[in-house]
């Protein structure tokens, strides 16, 4: 079932109706701007672009990113200037997005009232900062383990042996930042070629203190990558890390990486998440100029959530996620750490159909007790989640400064999926940027694990709301796609149907 917000967006777009009901204002925005207070909020415009329809007839998947970006930019250029002029007149601060036709605004109640009265504004949502439920504390592990157990568990080394390690694929990390010169990461950075060039390869969406402690070990508006929390360095290592000296911690060590900091000391907000999505759609230089969709990443590891109970509305990131998928970007997302109860996959972006959501397993392939279960009820969809599972318990990876440590969480599971997609796209150029087919290949080839819990309408079979389609096996996925070949053959027996 489609979300009501998206139905309204499509109705307005397709019918061309001039009827404009009053903008919906999040009650939290009204509370935040009471008694003369200034607050941050997201302004969503009515004009949105059906990007999936725009790219449906384009056979060149590499070109789809530019088609999506140009279509979204045209929409923004046509609808945002008048709104920006009013914000300028009101003295409000704002940041405009392209990946979704929206603005992040800082203003008082007078600004809220003025925007809510505009016919071109659909909704005004809260942009509160919140503490992100990230993985547990790091346990230091200094000695190299060569190929880590979790990498072997998903059979990545078997694909490496065929000569495919993620070459020519760009892996993106949106998180707490990165220690970019970590021995396991520096040589894999797209901005490193014996000298550093961070243009198009790094962006900092943290422009001020979010945590409230008024200090940050890295600072703000960084022009070079830095990790203020340690989480981003760890999850990126699971995706691509390898120091060449025995620390084989990454699924796709032949891939190159870029990054965007969307959390400050473990705190995030809807606007910081959207800003990194904007950067990934069309990376820009260090002055936020000259965006280039041809430099967009292939895959993104997203190891965070945006809880409606603290900051996000259920649909805050939905349109942006849909647009990134339409651009051919594989969005792997952690399912959340709110298990073991059912209906605990309840935070964007894991709840979305356009996200490939990952639960966590341990070394014995048992589902982690903390791993969130479906179905998704927060948006009324009853959608089955997670989509897949991957190792997420006691995962050893890179941590600042130049060290290695172990963390547990679905944050650790998500990079396995992004890394697996990187391996497959490196091996099969015909599969690259075909996100729907890649997800189906991973699902069809996944290892079915013993079912020990039922959630929602589960009937003791796969797919289900605990393990999704099963635990990733990237060598089985490689063999599966090698057998079925590229479209159109595949389309005669689709395995997964998408909602959008």
List keywords for this structure.
19 strands; alpha/beta; 28% helix; Rossmann fold; 2 domains; single chain; 5-stranded mixed sheet; 13 helices; 7-stranded parallel sheet; 500 residues
Strand order of the largest sheet: 10-12-9-14-15-16-17
Average per-residue pLDDT, rounded, comes to 92
Which architecture name of the largest domain does CATH use? 3-Layer(aba) Sandwich
The CATH superfamily of the largest domain bears the name: Peptidase S8/S53 domain
- First and last CA, distance: 10 Å
What is the helical fraction, as a range of percent?
25-40%
Helix and strand composition category? alpha/beta
Largest beta-sheet characterization: 7 strands, parallel
Strand content: 15-25%
Q: Regarding CATH, which class of the largest domain? A: Alpha Beta
Low-confidence stretches: 1-18, 490-495
- The third-level CATH topology of the largest domain is Rossmann fold
Number of helices: 13
Shape: globular
Question: Using only CA atoms, what is the Rg?
Answer: 21 Å
Task: Tell me what you see in this structure.
The structure is a single chain. With 500 residues, this protein is of the alpha/beta class. The protein has 2 domains: 4-127, no CATH class; 139-492, Rossmann fold (3-Layer(aba) Sandwich), CATH 3.40.50.200. The chain has helices at 4-15, 27-32, 51-55, 61-90, 109-116, 149-153, 156-160, 231-240, 270-281, 318-326, 410-427, 435-445, 474-484; strands at residues 24-25, 39-45, 93-96, 102-107, 121-126, 130-131, 139-140, 146-147, 170-175, 202-204, 247-248, 256-261, 267-268, 299-302, 330-334, 356-361, 388-391, 395-399, 403-407. The strands form 5 sheets. The chain has a 7-stranded parallel β-sheet with strand order 10-12-9-14-15-16-17, with helices on both faces. Strands 1-5-2-4-3 form a 5-stranded mixed β-sheet.
